Structures are given as C-alpha cells and as structure tokens.
Amino acid sequence: NVKEKHAVYLNINLVKELFNCGNEENEPILYYYITDDEVKFSEEFWNENNLNDSFVIGIHPGTGKYPPFRRWSLNYWGKLIKMINEKYKNVKFLVFIGPFEDEYYNYFNNLNLNNLRVARGMDLRKSISLISKCNFFISADSGLSHCASLFKIPQITIFGPVDYKYIHPFSENCKVVVPDNYKPFYIPHCGFISKPYDCMENLKPEKVFNEFEMYISTHPEIDYNKK
Questions:
Q1: Strands, DSSP E only, in 86-188?
Q2: The sheet that has 136-140: what strands, in order across it?
Q3: How confident is the model at residue 93, as a pLDDT?
Q4: What's the start-to-end Cα distance of the chain, in Å?
Q5: By three-state DSSP, how is residue 139 classified?
Q6: CA–CA distance, 131 with 91 (Å, rounded to integer)
Q7: Using CA atoms, how far apart are residues 200 and 181, in angstroms rounded to an integer?
C-alpha cells in the first residue's frame, strides 16, 4: 500500500522486502558531508557578499525547463521578496539561479535591492555548501529544496499540481504551501491522473508571506533579528 507514504518510506519498505532489512518505525536520518574546500568556498562567498551577521533567506525560484506547470510567476517571487524586505529590514536574500536561466537572472538583478545577492550557475556541491549557511529557505518544488532539508533548515516549499505527500522535502522543518483549491493532477508514482491545468496563478504572494510570518512567529528559536 503506497497511499500517502513518502518516497523515502516506500524505498525503505522495498529494501526491507528485498533484503529483509530496514525498519520504517525508526525515523531515517539524512547525512551530507561538506568538504573543507567547500566550507572555505562558502565562507569566502559570505564574506565577499557581506552576508555575515545577517538573517539570510535562500531563494530558489527555478524548476528547470520542464514541466512548466510547477513554476511560480517571477512577478510573484518579486512581490514576496519585497513584502518580506519591507517588514524585516535586517534580512538579506540569496537567490540561486541556473546557468541558462537568463530570464531569472535579469529579473532579480532588476529588482535593485541592495540586500539581494545572486548565486548563478554553480555546481551542485557548491550550491549545497551555500544553502547550509542560510537561515531560512524558500523555494519552488525543486532539487535544491531537498538539499535544504539535509540540514533541517527552516523552509517553505511551494508545490503546484504535484501531489507533495510523496516527495516533499524530508524534514520536519519544511512547510509546504499550495495554491487555493489545491487539487493535484500528477502523482509521482502514478503519473497524470487528470488533464494538466495552470493552478499556480491561484497561489498569491500574500499567502506565502502569511505562511512565512506564521512560521517565524511559531518558531521562537528562529532569530530573524540577528545582526
């Protein structure tokens, strides 16, 4: 029975059946090791971009070229960042952008925010080393959202019409936000269960901002006033 089980547990059960090992009752622990060179790289990046002693929010707006129905509007991303920036004056934003995402790169540069930095076209391990230093992470349904879960970073992940119950970032610190009237048409282990439609327009920046504020207010250990 795979109903509403995260893919991690599905795989554990598969291994258990095949090799008579593994135990779903024990919570799996994620491990990822950052090399000394990667630590040095991320520290130098933090220093060069004046990110030390700041509350850094990592942003990953991209989802790759396909499928397009997972994407959230760039204008929505911009509005969300500006809403956070207007209320929380001491935050800084680090936006992760792929090497071929020229539209994203141009858009975020044109926001003209002096507390926004862009990390573009970096290899995965370097990106992960930077993510590990972020205080919060907001992203689309993407691989980097799972990278943030490696370090239990407080995070919000935006899901569109994909059934997130099976593949959301594997962390108790991840809050999933979905459009109003959420009804997935794609289930990872089943495929499309109905005709695709554009539902991401229904997820307004105000809703994500409210979820961010609620997360901050209900987790007093998150020191967003850090300077």
A1: 91-97, 116-120, 136-140, 155-158, 174-177, 186-187
A2: 116-120, 91-97, 55-60, 136-140, 155-158, 174-177
A3: 97
A4: 49
A5: strand
A6: 15
A7: 11
Ranges assigned E (strand) in 125-227: 136-140, 155-158, 174-177, 186-187, 191-192
- Cβ(95)–Cβ(78) below 8 Å: no
- pTM given for the model: 0.86
Identify whether the C-beta of residue 95 lies closer than 8 Å to the C-beta of residue 61. Answer: yes
Q: What is the pLDDT of residue 1?
A: 47
* Alpha carbons within 13 A on the beta-carbon side of 151: 19
Mean pLDDT, residues 95-124 taken together: 93
- Tell me the two tokens of residue 213: 């504020």
Q: Which band of pLDDT confidence, cut at 50, 70 and 90, is reported for residue 227?
A: very low
**Closest to 76 measured CA to CA, from 101, 51, 108:** 108
